[in-house]
Specification:
252 residues, alpha+beta, Arc Repressor Mutant, subunit A, five-stranded mixed beta sheet, 11 helices
């Protein structure tokens, strides 16, 4: 975990007990004061990482588990771009219980995992955590017409990431809707089209860094960055490391 991620944990009044790294995710057990509440939309900060807190209820200081994830990974998995930097999840929800059980198994299993097993675990954990966040924030609701359009817009973006820059006008032409409707579809979850496209490109870059031996220049060209320097700046801003550093630490 990078120094930036560690610094963002200062959002909480915590004293660390122990931690496990799951690729670029960090699972930690803490001793801290009781926390109350469900999803905490206030104090949103555009940090690189999101800290998910799974509290143990009580009046005294008690152990709590946190999971720290790159914001870009959660956005690429379907979460709002405006996720707060610190989320306290409702402990009694069934899906949160599933996440807790998964974290228990991962905690004990990670030390014996190979790099490829850690990568698979990382992907599953991002997907499950994103699902929990969407469910608790109320975004997992029946789709209206605009919500259905948003799903189609997301799919179109995924299918055209390698075709060059994506503009609002491209979506307007592809779906025969107004630019206002496109903006509205993204604003339903507090997103912008630009933020979603950026997160999806970075997620694709990360997959190539971890799973292939392609050069940074080749990856930059594949995912339509101006040049390797442009890619490095964007990647470091969202993952806290250069592509080369990230590959060295997490590549399979």
């Amino acid at each position: 975990m990078t120094a930036t991620a560690t610094a963002e944990l200062a959002l909480l009044d915590l004293e660390t007990l122990s931690s496990r790294d799951v690729g670029d995710l960090q699972l930690a057990d803490w001793d801290c004061a009781p926390l109350e509440g469900m999803l905490s939309p206030g104090d949103a900060r555009e940090g690189q990482y999101v800290v998910v807190v799974l509290p143990a209820w009580g009046d005294e200081r008690a152990a709590k588990r946190t999971l720290t994830l790159p914001r870009a990974a959660l956005v690429a998995a379907g979460c709002d771009a405006s996720i707060p930097s610190c989320l306290v999840l409702e402990h009694s929800r069934p899906l949160v219980g599933v996440l807790l059980m998964a974290l228990d198994a991962i905690w004990s299993g990670v030390p014996a995992m190979s790099s490829s097993e850690i990568e698979v675990t990382r992907g599953a954990l991002v997907t499950l955590t994103a699902g929990v966040i969407r469910a608790q924030s109320g975004s997992a609701t029946p789709r209206s017409g605009v919500r259905a359009l948003r799903a189609q817009l997301d799919e179109w973006i995924n299918n055209h990431l390698r075709n060059g820059p994506i503009h609002i006008e491209d979506l307007v032409a592809a779906f025969n809707v107004s630019a206002r409707t496109v903006h509205r579809a993204f604003s339903l979850t507090g997103d912008t089209m630009t933020a979603v496209v950026r997160a999806r490109r970075l997620a694709a870059v990360r997959e190539d860094l971890v799973h292939t031996d392609m050069t940074i220049a080749a990856i930059a060209n594949r995912w339509c960055y101006f040049d390797p320097s442009h890619l490095c700046r964007e990647f470091r801003r969202h993952f806290g490391a250069t592509p080369s550093e990230y590959r060295e630490s997490h590549g399979c």
